[in-house]
Specification:
Radius of gyration: 17 Å
Strand content: 5-15%
Structural class: alpha+beta
Strand order of the largest sheet: 1-2-4-3
Number of helices: 6
CATH topology: NADH Oxidase
């Protein structure tokens, strides 16, 4: 699949078929995530694979009642090892770089899942402490996202995008690049 097709074709999926995901596909998806760039190549991400139905229910409740999470055969909880980034970059590493690095890994994960024929959704709305407890993260691992993955049971339309003329500037903010 062409990268531009994957970028433009991927959608947030909130309805899943119960079909299982083979471990080989899961490995490809997670390996793609680990190839993301990271500050100082510190790779602060960690991934917890969740297949247990009760644990998925607990995650859905922690995610402000987003119960569609339970439909997915697999959820991946992404965490940021704040201390790994702080080791080299101090406060900025702990508070920013580890989150940016995980965001890059999550995007790779989403695109890889789509390229393999799976739907997914990036969920960031949840109670951190509840998610931390559910997956057993120690205090220095910050929950960043819950990603349900499975065969899509819906086909959402593409959402509108702002035109480049509203978001791209030349040399300084509000100096148009495209007129």
């Amino acid at each position: 699949m062409d990268i531009f097709e994957a970028i433009k074709g991927r959608r947030s999926i909130r309805s899943f078929k119960p079909d299982p995901i083979p471990d080989e596909d899961l490995r490809k998806i997670l390996e793609a995530a680990t190839w993301a760039p990271s500050a100082g190549n510190l790779q602060p991400w960690v991934f917890v694979i969740v297949k247990d139905e009760e644990r998925k229910r607990r995650l859905a409740r922690a995610a402000l009642g987003q119960m569609f999470i339970t439909e997915a055969p697999v959820c991946i909880v992404v965490g940021a090892n704040e201390e790994r980034s702080a080791w080299r970059y101090g406060k900025r590493g702990r508070e920013l770089y580890c989150l940016l690095d995980c965001a890059a890994a999550i995007q790779n994960l989403l695109l890889a899942a789509y390229a393999l024929g799976y739907g997914s959704c990036w969920i960031g709305a949840f109670h951190d402490e509840e998610v931390r407890e559910i997956v057993g993260f120690p205090p220095y691992i910050r929950p960043v996202a819950i990603i349900p993955i499975g065969k899509a049971n819906e086909k959402p339309r593409a959402p509108a995008r702002l035109p480049l003329s509203e978001v791209v500037f030349l040399e300084e903010y509000e100096k148009p690049w495209i007129k």
